[in-house]
Design goal:
Shape: elongated
Bound molecules: copper (II) ion
Strand order of the largest sheet: 1-3-6-5
CATH class: Mainly Beta
CATH topology: Immunoglobulin-like
Largest sheet: 4 strands, antiparallel
Distance between the termini: 46 Å
Length: 120
């Protein structure tokens, strides 16, 4: 299905209350959106509404200035393909950080988003 047709069908299904053709969307994240942490989290982990295609899904972390924070490789959990995670290396200075994620589900369409958390 091409992208406009898929988007239209998804919209129609959403109106009908169905989620059969939903794209992967975050259901939960660690750290949580808007969390205020005392120290750097050991990893960033996002649980999606459906399984992801590992090769095309990932995340990155940026500080308030937009500088990318070095992390270990982002990977989809082989035991639960709805989980996308990446290890955080070392400490993070106090400040606000943004997680940018991208996710591709079974229909190969890419969705992306972001959320922020804070380190005190
Ligand atoms: Cu789609």
């Amino acid at each position: 299905m091409n992208r406009p047709a898929c988007a239209l069908l998804a919209a129609v299904l959403a109106v009908l209350g169905g989620a059969a053709l939903a794209h992967p969307l975050p259901r939960a994240a660690t750290p949580a959106p808007n969390a205020v942490l005392a120290a750097a989290p050991p990893q960033i982990r996002i649980t999606f509404s459906e399984r992801l295609v590992p090769a095309f899904s990932g995340l990155e972390l940026r500080d308030a200035a937009g500088k990318q924070i070095p992390m270990g490789p982002a990977a989809v959990d082989p035991n639960d393909e709805t989980e996308l995670a990446a290890p955080v290396k070392g400490q993070l200075a106090a400040g606000t950080y943004t997680v940018n994620w991208r996710a591709v589900g079974d229909d190969t369409h890419r969705v992306s988003g972001h959320y922020s958390f804070q380190v005190k």
